[in-house]
Amino acid sequence: METKTPYFKYCIVPLYKNTTVKVPDKIFIILPEDKIRRSKWLKACRRNEKDISQSSRSLHVCEDHFNVSIIKYYMSIY
Ligand SMILES: [Zn+2]
């Protein structure tokens, strides 16, 4: 199940354009593939679902948009 191409994570929030290359120390959270859960995340990030390519499997949001304690909470239940 490994991907062939090397890939890096990038933040879906356009203003920030954070990537793991630019800011390797940041926490990048992968959004759930499940549509309902994903849409909740997008709302939490104030992103319109329609702005996001639904074909993308790996969507990430960097920690800038979340309170760290929320991140830890979500990571623990994910
Ligand atoms: Zn970000």
In short:
InterPro entries: THAP_Znf (IPR006612). Helix content is 26%, strand content 8%.
Radius of gyration, Cα only, in angstroms?
12 Å
Question: What order do the helices and strands follow?
Answer: EHEH
Q: What is the spatial order of strands in the main beta sheet?
A: 1-2
Ends distance: 20 Å
Could you name the ranges where pLDDT drops below 50 across 5 or more consecutive residues? none
Q: What's the number of structural domains?
A: 1
Largest sheet: 2 strands, antiparallel
The outline comes out as globular
Ligand catalogue: zinc ion
Q: What would you call the structural class?
A: alpha+beta
Helix content: 25-40%
Arithmetic mean pLDDT: 73
What share of the residues does DSSP label as strand, in percent? Answer: 5-15%
Number of extended strands: 2
- Tally of contiguous helical segments: 2
Pfam families: THAP (PF05485)
Keywords: DNA-binding, Metal-binding, Zinc, Zinc-finger
Organism: Rhamnusium bicolor
Domain THAP-type: 5-78
Task: Write up this protein.
With 78 residues, this protein is α+β, with helices and mostly antiparallel strands. The protein has one domain. 26% of the residues lie in helices and 8% in strands. The protein has two helices and two strands. Strands 1-2 form a two-stranded antiparallel ribbon. It is globular and about 30 Å long. The mean pLDDT is 73. Zinc ion (ZN) binds next to strand 2. Keywords: DNA-binding, Metal-binding, Zinc, Zinc-finger. It comes from Rhamnusium bicolor. Pfam families: THAP. This is THAP-type domain-containing protein. One of its GO terms (molecular function) is DNA binding.
